[in-house]
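The authors assume throughout that readers already know how a fold can be written as discrete tokens. For illustration, here is how one protein appears when written out as sequence plus structure tokens.
>
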Amino acid sequence: MRSQQSPGLAAMLKLSVITCIYAFHTTTAIDIPLEVLGHVNIEQLPTITDQAPSSLIAFPFDESFPVTCEAKGNPEPEFQWKKNGEDFDPYLDPRLMKEENSGTFVIPNNGNLTEYQGTYRCYASNKLGTAISKEIEFIVPNVPKFPKEKLDPVEVEEGQPFILKCDPPTGVPPLQIYWMTINLQHIEQDERVSTGLNGDLYFSHAVEKDSRRDYCCYAAFPRIRTIVQKTAMSVNVKTRKGDRSESANAILERKPSLLTPPGDSSEKLLVKGEDLELECIPEGIPTPQVEWMKIGEQLPVKAKLENHRKLLIVPSAEQEDSGRYMCRAKNPLGEAVHYFTVRVE
């Protein structure tokens, strides 16, 4: 049995709710449920309640791609879209699937996705104002490919440094580089051999065991579940056939220099919150050791060293991480240094 309210009681309840809301509003903001707003007819600015991620990637194996935008407010918001800064109306495209009383539209995977590639932004408006979503980038990735090429063998004298170039194709980040053999065995890396941030494989000095015919650079793009392989590279280390005594080996010894970065100094500019990455890869015999310092200060507490101390990382850099950094590569015959001027804005 449904109970009935008298008109007087309903008015008293309405006044009570309004009074309670007004008293709370004088001290702090409050998010009022829509059912309450509708009952007491309180107006509210639009608020975005749900939206698509900032990067929406069109994987070829997905059937459709929802570009989500939901909002609340009183009166109920109306939705508009912009694509690449210009007005875009999903209702004018019969191929798109729309949802009633919603800003969401769905792009079907019908083979014509590239025309929808771009940056979208949703606007939810009522007479009180407009709520704006974050930018939503719809990405239709091309399958990255290494070019087909014939690579000449790398000929190097024992003890000399050399570099194997990867030159990975462009694709949807992040990019991960792996150096392996054709049989998918990882190339062993240490103080002497390491992969740089650019994907190249650096050798501080060549030894006989570096000779092989199947150095392969693999570029992995995890967001599109793709791995591509560069043409295998061959390395031939020319060994010294004569005296293998310590005196002969000593002739090969030399003080360090840097394979990367070039020159004595460089500048690094990044935005607050980005990771600071500084890299020094040396060559020399014996294999140089790398150490880091910040001029006039201690290294940031959150700093960490990777890639056998050749890479300094400061996660989520702040303005106080600005300054002058130095890497030093040392062996018994001498040292090489590089200065980085870092600015975090």
